[in-house]
Amino acid sequence: MDRHFTEPLRERGVRITPQRAFIWQALASSDDHFTAEELWERVRAVLPGLEISTVYRSLEALAGAGLVVESRVGEGPRIFEARSAPHPHLVCEKCGRISHLDSAAGGRILGALEAESEGFETHELHIFATGVCADCAEGTE
User: Fold this and answer.
1) CA torsion, ordered 127, 129, 130, 136, to nearest 10 deg
2) Which fold is adopted by the domain 3-81?
């Protein structure tokens, strides 16, 4: 099993279960953002008896270990991803796709925040920009 998965859980005294491993793997193997229900659909193909409540508890444990980030776009559902570093999101108003700014642009935004925060220590940051993605702007979506 991957050390990047097991070590943070062990350090916090969190049990490593097959359900948590499959949920984390589903997130870590994709750059996409998932709701708990979407993850449940993906993982229950492998673990047919998986309950949605187990998915929520697993996501909370993984987030507590710093392996998963939970966000919410506006009033939408909670979404989860396996990126732990703060990063800005771009949300298409037409197709709903969520993408990331490249790390250099995200770093400049975070750097500006730190420079202007006058000693404020940021623990969590969620930045979402809404607009229309290139595919939708071209009419291909």
Assistant:
1) -120
2) Arc Repressor Mutant, subunit A (1.10.10)
**DSSP letter for each residue of the chain:** --HHHHHHHHHTT----HHHHHHHHHHHT-SS-B-HHHHHHHHTTTSTT--HHHHHHHHHHHHHTTS-EEEE-TTS-EEEES--S---EEEETTT--EEE--HHHHHHHHHHHHHHSTT---S----EEEE--HHHHTT--
Q: At which residue do the structure tokens 């916090």 appear?
A: 12
Going by CATH, does the domain composed of 89-137 fall within 3.30.1490.190? Answer: yes
Contact 56, 41 (CB under 8 A): no
Q: Report d(CA 96, CA 68) in Å as an integer.
A: 21
pLDDT in tens, 60-119: 999 988 889 888 877 778 999 987 666 788 889 999 888 887 767 777 887 888 788 887
